[in-house]
Amino acid sequence: xxxxxxNLEKLIKNNREITNLGNVADYIPELSxxxxxxxxxxxxxxxxxxxxxxxxxxxxxxxxxxxxVALMLAILDNGExxxxxxxxxxxxxxPFNSIRKLxxxxxxxxxxxxxxxxxIAVSSMIKGDDVKDKFRRLLDFFKEIxxxxxxxxxxxxxxxxxxxxxKNRSMGYYLKDEGIIKGNVEEALEIYFKxxxxxxxxxxxxxxxxxxxxxGRNSLGEEIISPRISRIVKTLMVTCGMYDSSGEFAVxxxxxxxxxxxxxxxxxxxxxxGIGIYSPSLDSKGNPVAGxxxxxxxxxxxxxxxx
Amino acid sequence: xxxxxxNLEKLIKNNREITNLGNVADYIPELSxxxxxxxxxxxxxxxxxxxxxxxxxxxxxxxxxxxxVALMLAILDNGExxxxxxxxxxxxxxPFNSIRKLxxxxxxxxxxxxxxxxxIAVSSMIKGDDVKDKFRRLLDFFKEIxxxxxxxxxxxxxxxxxxxxxKNRSMGYYLKDEGIIKGNVEEALEIYFKxxxxxxxxxxxxxxxxxxxxxGRNSLGEEIISPRISRIVKTLMVTCGMYDSSGEFAVxxxxxxxxxxxxxxxxxxxxxxGIGIYSPSLDSKGNPVAGxxxxxxxxxxxxxxxx
Amino acid sequence: xxxxxxNLEKLIKNNREITNLGNVADYIPELSxxxxxxxxxxxxxxxxxxxxxxxxxxxxxxxxxxxxVALMLAILDNGExxxxxxxxxxxxxxPFNSIRKLxxxxxxxxxxxxxxxxxIAVSSMIKGDDVKDKFRRLLDFFKEIxxxxxxxxxxxxxxxxxxxxxKNRSMGYYLKDEGIIKGNVEEALEIYFKxxxxxxxxxxxxxxxxxxxxxGRNSLGEEIISPRISRIVKTLMVTCGMYDSSGEFAVxxxxxxxxxxxxxxxxxxxxxxGIGIYSPSLDSKGNPVAGxxxxxxxxxxxxxxxx
Amino acid sequence: xxxxxxNLEKLIKNNREITNLGNVADYIPELSxxxxxxxxxxxxxxxxxxxxxxxxxxxxxxxxxxxxVALMLAILDNGExxxxxxxxxxxxxxPFNSIRKLxxxxxxxxxxxxxxxxxIAVSSMIKGDDVKDKFRRLLDFFKEIxxxxxxxxxxxxxxxxxxxxxKNRSMGYYLKDEGIIKGNVEEALEIYFKxxxxxxxxxxxxxxxxxxxxxGRNSLGEEIISPRISRIVKTLMVTCGMYDSSGEFAVxxxxxxxxxxxxxxxxxxxxxxGIGIYSPSLDSKGNPVAGxxxxxxxxxxxxxxxx
Lengths: 307, 307, 307, 307
Fold this sequence. Notes:
- 4 copies of one chain form a homotetramer.
- In chain A, 47% of the residues lie in helices and 10% in strands.
- Chain A is α+β, with helices and mostly antiparallel strands.
- Chain A folds into 2 domains: 3-63 and 199-302, DD-peptidase/beta-lactamase superfamily (Beta-lactamase), CATH 3.40.710.10; 65-196, Beta-lactamase.
- In chain A, a hairpin with a 3-residue loop joins strand 6 (264-269) and strand 7 (273-278).
- The two termini of chain A are 18 Å apart.
- Chains in contact: A-B, A-D, B-C, C-D.
- The interface between B and C is medium-sized, with 17 and 17 residues.
């Protein structure tokens, strides 16, 4: 089926009841206010077409999807070798907020940049004069690649994340002890908590997806990141992007994707499409339950899996 | 570059020195007799062309590559739902012969069919009148899909595997205790040890790869397994096929692949090529060190990565 | 208070209701037939006095209490150095049937002889012409030190243990792979399952306790094991005897003790008393719930704690 | 042998060469300045006799021995029930600075107050108007029970501990996330790092030992802590006091003891003696290697083991 023939409204309708199988995140008050039944999608292609349905205009915080953005900037800032000497490329098999492997594994570094420990390490590598400048650079980079100059953080979410984020803080200090975080831990965490609190819509996320689909080129065709960095990011999204459901997701959906507990999913159809989902009802692994089902339907229709 | 223009001899020559960075498996005497410097390749396309270089005619035992074959037959025998209710689809982040996650994970089943625990569970699901019949069916299935009627087990290797395979035996009884293995553990292990001991060459392995590349069709175009099963297998090869180096391998090479400690690698270029490698010098994770480098070179030349 | 003034009947009565807080073991049918409300005790002193109350004549299988007996014989057979080169002396912090530390610890040996993995290793060290002879020697040794020539195994329990003991089997093969079990794993397991199936009463267990209290001397004052071996055993009973409740038990009761899932506890008041308990209702750690409470009351009355 | 007949000088001489088997702690510069060959001892009895030899006047930081002091005060401040609802009583089987069990165990609390995680939790429970007052109360309590009014912290050590103590900081934030630390984490850590930095000699430590030996009474016979608290502390010293060598130490020495990486050991002969050791050369577990050997010799001579 062609993308233009896809009945997104119907797919949204069919999958909306699946939102009942999950729950919105509730570890901070702001997130628990999300509407569990919400389900929105935006698909962008390279001809400038945009297809949207459902709550695609609802704002939500980007959360773990920001790990993809920070990783690209950290590689730009430090080079691939530097980054992956300090963070691995392997799925961990453990929940996203697990600390145990930092101690039990002989690797001596976080397994990958998509689990919290790895992402905090990555955020600590972003360059800048001070912590404000570092985050500003990250936000500017996100604006540039998503071509959305309106991006801002949700201060309430940021403050809550920072206040309650003691497990992340615990990982940060562990990484400091291991020499993986070089500078100030609280600054690394500030960047991490802030990047998670950036507000987006499904449209923003679809734009991010299209940027990665186009191997790091913006809508004018300008290369912002190299095809190699883009490929690394895509690959890590496949193997590690959906927490410890990445393997099953690869079978069901089979697109490089990254989820966030705010309800977002970015998916990439290489060289073709960027897909942004908003689906705040999460399964037990922290992934948007209806959003995954919606993506599976779309892949069945469009035959766009990479596998 | 076109496949026909690929200078395989030169690539073999360039990568042969990399064999020095690893060592042949030595946990059983038979494997330690392999020639560490060996490096062979066979590439098959859909037009019946065959490109070979190096020690592509050397016999070696298929070892963990057989997990892919057994998985396909177990799904044919029991259905996808039955199999994946008992074995997961997630990378484990631990070494291939690790037992810990059977106890520490809340999943209650082996993480995936590519680690030993999962593979033993899968082998226990193959149907047949008795253990001999079960293994015969597996061997016949392997012969059918690789279109190689000469396949036999190496009895010396089998006996050594069986004699020394106490960690696998340990996993088998653990799985029995968990109710994942239904029948006799020693029979499941017999099938598992025998399937690992089947002798192949890089050519056999390339044929297996082409079969998977063609979505489960043989050279006559007959569908032996469904495209869906083929897709599941390919996906699991990407996320879990190279032990706990699968993530890095996906970045470096980016083809669905499965390695074995006998030195083999099967790689799949979807809809196009089957690749068989023989490279018995292994890195610390148990993967063929020169074989991976050779595959990386080929992917750089042919631009055939799936990512 | 003097032992002779202790009102055992009243203590039994007071603690019998605590049996409701636990459950009898049910992993094999024979054990689940035990009467949950049963609570019996036998206390022996060095003047030949015997104080009994409750179901002290009820037969039950000795289960893990046999680990103490096997350890003494294994040290007699092989020497302290040999045994503790292969089994540690440390509490593990994990449940008694846990396998994970065999893989995750750098020690390379089971933590102590009181967890299953360590006990199976110990049983494999008992000397004899063949497996029958080895077990006969163990049974004879138990008869000798408990001065009870009637000891026999409960065949039904033994067969059930053997049939369902796949987690123990899993540990056995893991230990074989590590080189800690030298001979045949199934034989080691046969001895282990048989020793667990020996039938005793609280009286037998009290005699075992008195033997240890008297530093390895029998009622005639003959030294069967050296004071040093006796001391090692007593110490391991303190640090590891009550599974992963040993620490709390040491605070509450403070006597060298060993429990079994058959409901038994042997406790030792050094140089003074041997105590045998029968209390088949177990807490979540597998320890006799009312038996521990009864022991705590006795220690409060007699002020016989070692701490 | 009587204490007065013990040739301490000779025992020191005999054991001094054992200091070569270990190394002084070097994670902070101050500790690495200790003289590896040093070995000192002080033994106090209830008649006011004092027996000393070797470097018993050398000052060193008390380090983990302070965990015993803080535990007593925390129980005094909060009651036994409150404290042990938040910290367990079980040996963990893991190194003292391990974090894994906070995540992998179902207990949901640190295993015991003698590993770092448990000790940090305990220090967070000490009452006071503010962090200064809390530490002042702890220091005053230490002065009271050791009857040494000169105790002070070594500021250099404290600053180094605080600066480099990121693994402890990691545990602190993990405990905060779990709700085990109620107040400010940095304040809890400040108390913990300061208590570890208190300077003592073997004499101070021997006085602490005698206080515990006398069930919480000072030299005037006044009860500072209850016999029950004293018993709990003694018991935890037996099961958990020597890190993950506690089991072997109990067999070799058999006295309630607590070591510190500054080189100190406090040992208790119940109702009789307090022993203080200074032995900065540590074994691989972080315990004073010559000090343990010296204690073993003394126990062999005096027959003062509790087992």
